[in-house]
Design brief:
single chain; 79 residues; mainly alpha
C-alpha cells in the first residue's frame, strides 16, 4: 500500500456455497462417475469426494454435470 497509495486495500475473500435445491439425481451421479472414469480417475476417495461435493455445492454440481454432458455429446471429449 505504501508503494501504491491509490490501490484498494485487500479484503479477505470468503467463498459462498450455493446449496442445491434438490438431491443429486441418480442419472447425474452416473454421468459424473462415467466422466471421471473416462478421464482416468479411479481413486475411490477422490470419486467419493467429487460426488459429495456435488451433493453439497450447486456450483460444483453444475461444473461436473456440465463436463459429463459435454462428454456425452457427439464430437466432444469433456476433457
Amino acid at each position: 500500500m505504501e508503494r501504491y497509495p491509490g490501490a484498494i486495500a485487500a479484503q479477505p475473500f470468503t467463498p459462498t456455497v450455493r446449496r442445491p435445491a434438490s438431491p443429486l439425481s441418480a442419472e447425474d451421479e452416473a454421468a459424473i462417475r462415467a466422466w471421471l472414469a473416462a478421464i482416468g480417475e479411479t481413486d475411490p476417495a477422490t470419486i467419493a469426494e467429487v460426488i459429495e461435493h456435488c451433493r453439497q455445492d450447486q456450483d460444483a454440481r453444475d461444473y461436473y454435470v456440465g463436463q459429463a454432458r459435454m462428454r456425452e455429446e457427439p464430437g466432444r471429449t469433456g476433457k
